[in-house]
Amino acid sequence: MAKKKAMLIDVSLCVGCNACQAGCKAQNGQPPNEEKFLSLTAYTALSKYNDLYVRRMCQHCDVPTCVSVCPVGALTKSELGPVSYDGEKCIGCRYCLQACPFHVPKYEWSSTKPSIRKCTFCAARLAKGQPTACSEACPTGATTFGDRDQLLIEAARRIGAEPGKYVPKIYGEQDVGGTSMLFISPVPFEQLGFDSRLGKTPMPLLTMSALSKVPNVLSVGGVLLAGIWWITDRRTEVQAYEASEASKKKGAAIQPKDDA
Ligand code: SF4
Ligand code: SF4
Ligand code: SF4
């Protein structure tokens, strides 16, 4: 059985050089301009808090909400860790955009055949036994790649070795049920824009718990199928509308809201 991979991001070692974003963009054939927010052409971006920098990207959750809400299986969690996207299956419902607790997936609003874009965790590289492009590009060791269990040991070792340097928490060890992105930090994670309300329970379990209180919700196969039909139909409507808007604006793209 393949060992689950992860990245350890040590906020105390990050110098804000942006080499991780440059490496990611090169890997994914994206324009090399520096971007401050996640976008269709930036799968990772840096947020600055006083003198600290924090990387943003898909967390590759162990129990991903985006996977659980996708009605057609276009998003899947692999044994190695990456949450991967299959554009051929995607019907454009955008449930994953709404469901992701980290506001990660971006949508090609201006395309007539829109896709979702987000960090791939370099799944193709991992499958070949290679590290992620961003970890390879990082000059300080602020982003390291490896087996998740080993990185958890390393993170705990760093926290224990220098009491006072780090807050005693590995973000992602248990948050939202655990993630492939692990962070250690010299300041509380709330001060770095992490949402402390997310808790440790996998988000899909919370959703199921809430749904189970709704009468008949677990016998709604027909409703689900009708929903899928509606989504497919709606997608055609949305595409027609967006194509017409795009042509009115002579190709100007509708920009989605940026999220840090
Ligand atoms: S961070 Fe969002 S997009 Fe990434 S795996 Fe988790 S739920 Fe899915
Ligand atoms: S894992 Fe790959 S796709 Fe994700 S941020 Fe790093 S280089 Fe980019
Ligand atoms: S490459 Fe490393 S040091 Fe540079 S911004 Fe990214 S994580 Fe920080």
From TrEMBL:
<dbReference type="InterPro" id="IPR051555">
    <property type="entry name" value="FDH_Electron_Transfer_Unit"/>
</dbReference>
<keyword id="KW-0479">Metal-binding</keyword>
<feature type="domain" description="4Fe-4S ferredoxin-type">
    <location>
        <begin position="49"/>
        <end position="80"/>
    </location>
</feature>
<dbReference type="InterPro" id="IPR017900">
    <property type="entry name" value="4Fe4S_Fe_S_CS"/>
</dbReference>
<feature type="domain" description="4Fe-4S ferredoxin-type">
    <location>
        <begin position="5"/>
        <end position="34"/>
    </location>
</feature>
<feature type="domain" description="4Fe-4S ferredoxin-type">
    <location>
        <begin position="81"/>
        <end position="110"/>
    </location>
</feature>
<keyword id="KW-0408">Iron</keyword>
<keyword id="KW-0004">4Fe-4S</keyword>
<dbReference type="InterPro" id="IPR017896">
    <property type="entry name" value="4Fe4S_Fe-S-bd"/>
</dbReference>
<keyword id="KW-0677">Repeat</keyword>
<protein>
    <submittedName>
        <fullName>Formate dehydrogenase</fullName>
    </submittedName>
</protein>
<dbReference type="Pfam" id="PF13247">
    <property type="entry name" value="Fer4_11"/>
</dbReference>
<keyword id="KW-0411">Iron-sulfur</keyword>
